[in-house]
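Q: what sequence does this backbone want?
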């Protein structure tokens, strides 16, 4: 992979992040309501598509940090989300059909971010939830779920709620 390819992918992710920021706060688009049971309407939804290769994960980490910062997550929460996205992608890339894409959708609520990362899978086998990696992922993201969809699409859904500010 060349630096030009990486720079192009980074520009595309930054452009998607900027377009998401153009909408008015509190207004829903391209995704409708927030996650089931959240009782909150989603403000924005951003989708990043890229080759299912580890070389592109820095683009997702950057997009994750930028979008979490928009929601006023703390620096620690932002770093947790960056690591969680990286870990979820690592779990998926091992099962991805070679030459296909990885899709990451960020759904932003008022105080919550839902991140869905998916690939076309060769085996359509969700990661085991009793492993150390899954335990770490759950601790970093808050809520984690693995889903198998049509056509062997394997998805990991991360949901992190912003901690309330503790002013005393």
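A:
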């Amino acid at each position: 992979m060349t630096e030009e390819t990486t720079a192009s992918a980074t520009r595309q992710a930054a452009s998607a992040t900027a377009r998401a920021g153009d909408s008015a706060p509190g207004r829903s688009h391209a995704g409708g309501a927030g996650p089931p049971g959240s009782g909150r309407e989603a403000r924005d939804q951003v989708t990043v598509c890229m080759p299912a290769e580890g070389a592109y994960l820095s683009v997702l980490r950057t997009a994750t940090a930028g979008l979490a910062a928009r929601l006023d997550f703390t620096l620690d929460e932002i770093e947790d989300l960056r690591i969680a996205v990286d870990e979820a992608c690592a779990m998926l890339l091992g099962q991805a059909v070679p030459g296909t894409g990885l899709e990451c959708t960020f759904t932003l609520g008022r105080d919550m971010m839902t991140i869905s990362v998916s690939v076309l899978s060769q085996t359509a086998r969700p990661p085991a939830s009793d492993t150390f990696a899954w335990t770490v992922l759950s601790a970093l993201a808050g809520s984690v779920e693995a889903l198998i969809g049509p056509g062997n699409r394997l998805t990991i859904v991360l949901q992190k709620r912003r901690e309330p500010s503790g002013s005393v």
